[in-house]
Amino acid sequence: MTHLIMLSRQSLHARIVTVTALVAAVAVVASTAAIYLVTERSLHMQTNDRLARTADAVIGTASYGGPPWVFSPAVSSKVAVVTPNNQIVTAVGAWGEPFDDPQDITSWLADADLSAGPATTVLDGYQLLAKQSPGSGVVVAAEAMAPTASLLRKLLVALTVLGGIVTACAILAGSAVARTGLRPVRRLTAGMQRVARTDLLDPVPVVGHDELAQLSERYNTMLASLGNSRERQRALVADAGDELLTPLTALRTNLELLVSASEPNGPELGDTERENLSRDVVTQIEDVSRTVAELVDRARIQEGIAHPDETAQDKD
């Protein structure tokens, strides 16, 4: 959960690189494990095949005229024959591990069911295969596991190094893809910052036809709509100024005349003139009110034209 929170706080570029690295690492680990296990099993089966061939060769060439039984072992294997009375007879140079402890060999053979086929086990760092001889006794072939273990270690080191290289390449590729893919987002962000800083509604360049390009087109459409709305507002303000200037000027003149007439040293106005001025003031106020109402209605109509969907929702 903590890792998810930390990942959500990173930038989108960093998140893409991180996810790419994680996916590559998981793929490398899975591939390394699969290759290692398959190779290990293959080497184990190859060793068993060699031991089986060695045991067959010993069974085919052995002379059972009596001890010491004579046979020629394979170069890479140690071979011994376990007699029915549990004595171990080895080939020349085969004595030692794993045949130096007869009890381990005889105990293993006692538990093995050789009638169903050859039996295998691992003993003292050797892989053993036992096969029942048609005459008497059991042929046991052994091969040291050290060369196989050394080969597997080298394979594991090679796979680890290769996996590290592949992961590093994946990180670089993810960074390049993120940098290239997020370039339209950076252009869009820069355009937004420019609008906020300069108040200029300049469109951003649109490259391609993907989702980010469509987002840039929507942003440019929004800027164009905002620019049109701004122009309509300016035109509305200019019209309001032109339409209200004349009645407000006349109203101000009449009001100033009425105020000055009420002062001690002001001009004298007859009742008829005062009544006409008062009537003109009321008429001019009504004209101003009507003009303001018309301007408000015009502004609402323009707003409805600019945002027809929102207007329809308001009516619903």
Features:
about 325 residues; alpha+beta; Helix Hairpins; about 70% helix; about 10% strand; rod-shaped
Question: Outline of this structure?
Answer:
This protein is an alpha+beta fold and 316 residues long. The chain has helices at residues 2-8, 12-61, 102-111, 146-181, 183-198, 211-261, 271-306, 308-315; strands at residues 78-82, 88-90, 119-123, 126-132, 138-144.
Summarize the structure in words:
This protein has eight helices and five strands; from the N terminus they run ααββαβββααααα. The chain is an alpha+beta fold. The protein has two domains: 2-168, no CATH class; 207-315, Helix Hairpins (Orthogonal Bundle). It has a five-stranded antiparallel β-sheet with strand order 2-1-5-4-3, sandwiched between helices. The two termini are 44 Å apart. The model is unreliable at 63-75 and 310-316 (pLDDT under 50).
